[in-house]
Amino acid sequence: MKIRIKNSNLISMSENRKQYEENVDILIQDKKIVKIDKEISETVDQTIDATGKIILPGLINTHSHISMSIFRETVDGYKTQDWLKEKIWPMEDKLKEEDIYWATLLSCIEMIKTGTTTVNDMYFMTDQIIEAVLKAGIRLQTTRTLMGYEEKDEKRLVELEELIEKYQQETISFNVGIHGLYTSNESYVKKCIQFAKQRNLPVHMHFCENEQEKEDIKREYHVQSPMEVIKRDFLETHNILAHSVKLDSKDIQELAHTNSYVSHCPVSNLKLGCGVANIKEMLENNICVSLGTDGQGSGSNLDMFETMKFTALLQKGWNEQPEIMPAYEVLKMATINGAKTLGLEKQIGSIEVGKNADLIMIDLNEIITQPMNNVFAEIVYNAKGSNVQMTMINGKVLMQDRKIDGLEEEKIVHKCNEIIKRIEK
Fold this sequence. Notes:
CATH topology of the largest domain: TIM Barrel
CATH class of the largest domain: Alpha Beta
Oligomer: single chain
Helix content: 25-40%
CATH superfamily of the largest domain: Metal-dependent hydrolases
Shape: globular
Strand content: 15-25%
């Protein structure tokens, strides 16, 4: 199938193109972008008129727990560990496989409607997550969450291997999701690292999210700093480190000499009272920083536009330097940096010939974004997920004019409300 997007204002995020181009056509054949030019006149099966609209790469959420949609707004007033132990883990114990499926579908609707085309997820009952995502059409990097202290916990590695063998899908990729150094001992973590190296997979884990976690790691691993563990054990792996809030200048300089990528989750970190990650210094040390929402339980929603705004404002205010974090650089974090973080930059993250057609169309023709003096700043500070008019993943239009076909929204919302009522008892 051939699709032509005509008359777009293009933000490609490609280093080989201008940052902003007007009146550009994009030709998509099957799953790939095959041509980007002025006035493409080829015969096509479908034409999407983007006159006055902006086309940009689909947003990439590099850290989330998408089945936690049902736990939205359960965290208020709790610290991270207290929230998990007192609220979430007791409810999670009551979850059934079908609950995970419906909760994931709810998040898929949210992502499609807010322009996220790829998500890096970490949870359990992964089969149900994958089945829901395949139905919805979202691009997913996932894992079977790995945590443990004893030999019996190694079965989770077997389960992950089975998932990898079972789902040989173009839109599904995997990483080795170690929940965190503070929820596993050193022996178990080393087995996970070995698994990642043998299968050439990234490692994805929570890292230094809060002060208690940092102290737990120091005690469990007998180190002065959690960075000692990264330097000692994670030098030969591609590491996706979620949060990384409690890293000082020395830690950041040392992190720059490892193959580590940071997933910055500002909304969740603020809501849980964790603090603010020093993204400014990470960027100054050439660490690739991408953006994540975390799960809706702590991050409230999956709207990456909101995450971009918080990212920019926090760093400017915290550092008292309004000149840092230019809007275009923040947009890179939500697109091409996200692709690099997941090891998928050859496939997605920018609009270029040969890459997969993961892109969104946004409409900024409303009062809050007019007059448009700086298009990148409008996107980062004033646009919201509701400005997304069209979402395309792998060459397939999943939403057009805010309408999604194939997902029964009312039924899914009803199912999720039933689930949370049952498990809260």
